[in-house]
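Usage

Read records sequentially. Each one opens with the input sequence:
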Amino acid sequence: MLKLAARLAAFALTVWCWRLVQIGAFSAAWSLAFMWGGVALVPLVALAGRYVLDRRPQLDRDGWVTAAVHYAEAILLGCAVMVSLGFGKEHPIATIPLPRSISQPFLQVTGAFLIATILNLAIKGLGAPFAVARTRKIADGWLYSRTRNPMVLGTLVFAVVLGFWLQSLHVVLWAVAWLSPAWLIFVRVYEERELELRFDGPYLDYKRRTPFLWPRLRTAPRA
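and closes with the structure output:
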């Protein structure tokens, strides 16, 4: 009960931080600090968490280390994305001449895909994102049978499409060249190591047969 209460409190803090940034009025300099500086801290959080796991893996037996690392990541990345919305509208820097009527359907499709990944994780892994509930088994069905990180893939594609919808070249470049590498480093350095320690052999088998990010195209069997 204490664990659940702590996780819900941390989730509430995360949402509060997102909301505070969403409604806040920031100068261009502060917005850039959130978008670029905040995201730059994500790999450092991953490295610190990995250091603790490798030195004393028993500390994460109840998920406290993972919860702390995941919520730090959620706050940093979530706030950066929230700031990018307002910054992209007010300071596109270089405008992309693409009508929103074209990017809007792609935004809706990627958003729907994200919701599908959350449902997939909940049904197949019995867990929820942002460490609200750690997965109790390996989510290796449906979308997770094609890629180990469909939620990450969907979020990053959504961020790029969002930049096109905002008609901001800066947001597109930020999502591709800064947000994506930082997030992928986090997954590689911390998340996969934590899953290896928690699920051991079954996760290693799943890791060997399933691509990290880009799904493999299924080919028809030869006659």
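Summary fields computed downstream for this record:
- Helices lie at 2-23, 28-55, 64-90, 100-125, 150-165, 169-199, 201-209.
- The longest helix spans residues 169-199.
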